[in-house]
Amino acid sequence: MADRRNQRVEVTRHMLQDGLLRLLEDRAHYPDMAHITVTALCRESGVNRTTFYTHYSTPEDILDEISRDMAAEFVEKEKKKYPAGNQGTEAILTDLCRYLYANADKMKILIRFHRDDDVRKTFPHFMKDDSPISQLFRSQFDESEIPLAATFLTAESYALVKSWLVDDISKTPEEISALVLKISRINWLQPEGDPHAHNRTL
Question: What are the C-alpha distances in Å from 94 to residues 64, 90, 133, 142, 172?
Fold first, then answer.
């Protein structure tokens, strides 16, 4: 019974997420989040208002949820790809850029309709405690240093990703990954023993 209820909740979540994304793609009628009403969202999603308010307070909550879901999906993909957690900085960045590029439409909407601070807050979700990115950080930094290092890298990376996706800059995920490494010079995140480490020195 509980499983069936959870399935219904998941279906409702996805219906509302998809409905919100469709509305936000219609920039002529919905130029910003302020124009998205609960009534319009429920009508587009095929969900009644009572059900909406059971799970959310505002449409912005759904936008936040989309961000968190994307981060969780990426983390799970990386954990399956690198079960031993032995991937390097370049591999993680390349995978992340490929993921963002594959989900460029969603990312553009998140960037356009979220405040920059709200989108930047999403990036730490990619560094959950059990994620490969988190493992990489923990291998190089003290616990007290991790939040500061993550803040620094998040600010740099977000600004570059924003320009890349929103301005439709013609570069591949691999090129963007290499550029992030080059600009931020984060070679010091490279785990010891990485076969490519000698090619990327500070």
Answer: 24, 6, 12, 25, 10
Mean pLDDT in residue range 2-24: 89
Spatial distance between the Cα atoms of 62 and 133, rounded to a whole number of angstroms: 25
The sign of the CA dihedral 173, 177, 179, 180 is positive
Domains parsed from the chain with CATH numbers: 1-57 (1.10.10), 59-199 (1.10.357)
Q: Count other Cβ atoms within 10 Å, centred on residue 19.
A: 21
Residue recorded with tokens 């500061």: 148
Q: What is the DSSP letter of 58?
A: S
Say which residue the tokens 């000698």 belong to: 198
CA dihedral 77→79→83→89, nearest 10 degrees, is 100
**Tokens standing for 43?**
């009508």
Closest C-alpha to 122, from 180, 74, 64, 202: 64
- What are 120-179's pLDDT values in tens digits? 566 656 666 667 777 777 777 888 887 787 777 777 778 888 899 988 899 999 999 888
pLDDT band at 76 (very low <50, low <70, confident <90, very high): confident
Tokens of 139: 């291998």
Q: Where are the alpha helices (DSSP H) in 46-121?
A: 49-55, 59-81, 89-102, 104-113, 116-120
What pTM does this model have? 0.76
192, pLDDT greater than 60 = no
